[in-house]
Design goal:
globular; about 10% strand; single chain; about 250 residues; five-stranded parallel β-sheet; binds zinc ion
């Protein structure tokens, strides 16, 4: 079964789908400042690439992988002061996710898989709150690999694990692989590395990229990004999503 996009189908086509063998895959990104060299939609592009890579792997396992339209608005308080960042209230995201899961359950879908690429702590907390609520309701399974946590984080690149993981080598490599024409290449190669760790800043109670030592909204080393690293990270993110789905399907639900 090839990967399909839910938005492209008719209601009758969805009605004829074996929804108990389907995975509804929801990419979640943000419109958020990503350095002077990457587009605001960086996390949207990464989430969509993760969702598609995971969908293709699930499809080869015989599942019916259905891509949902991306959620492109998200809580982004760390970047909220940078022009173009459009930050949502955390509760608004949680409500949307729970409602989407409710609708999927109503139409007999068995599984929602979340491919998230935006890492602001308020955003991660809003997703986790929704996942907890969806699991408590018990009407649809939800697979959600939080890539900032074990067991997933240790498999990602050294820069990502250092916490300097915003618009640096990690994310820039992915956008170079996906949409090179959206990267400001002549500027990228001149950007000095910024080794400040966002995870350390968050632990220290800092609340914005500027406070965390990122006055231009990037951390890490954009100048070291490569298309090859971007391609391999996308494949790995797809594997992570696939594994999270298989773990969820293996989990017995009460
Ligand atoms: Zn990002």
């Amino acid at each position: 079964m090839p990967v399909r996009e839910l938005a492209q189908l008719t209601w009758q086509e969805v009605g004829a789908t074996d929804r108990e063998r389907a995975a509804a895959i929801l990419p979640i990104g943000a419109l958020e400042a990503h350095g002077p060299h990457l587009p605001l939609a960086t996390d949207v592009l990464i989430a969509e690439a993760m969702a598609r890579a995971g969908a293709e792997k699930l499809s080869t396992r015989g599942m019916d992988a259905l891509l949902l339209p991306t959620l492109a608005y998200a809580p982004a308080p760390f970047a909220a002061d940078f022009p173009g960042t459009l930050s949502l209230e955390a509760a608004a995201l949680t409500t949307q996710l729970v409602s989407i899961a409710d609708s999927l359950a109503r139409h007999d879908f068995d599984l929602l898989a979340i491919a998230n690429a935006h890492l602001d702590p308020a955003h991660l907390a809003a997703i986790q709150a929704a996942v907890t609520e969806i699991r408590q309701a018990g009407r649809v399974r939800v697979a959600y690999p939080d890539v900032t946590q074990r067991p997933w984080a240790p498999r990602l690149t050294a820069e990502f694990r250092s916490g300097a993981c915003h618009a640096g080598r990690y994310e820039t490599s992915i956008i170079m692989a996906l949409r090179p024409e959206w990267v400001h290449e002549t500027l990228r190669v001149t950007l000095p590395p910024n080794a400040r760790s966002l995870s350390a800043a968050i632990a220290a109670g800092q609340k914005s990229f500027v406070e965390a030592g990122g006055p231009r909204a990037y951390f890490g080393s954009p100048g070291e990004a490569t298309t090859d690293e971007g391609r391999s990270t996308i494949a790995l993110l797809g594997t992570i999503l696939e594994e999270a789905v298989m773990l969820e399907l293996a989990r017995s639900v009460g």
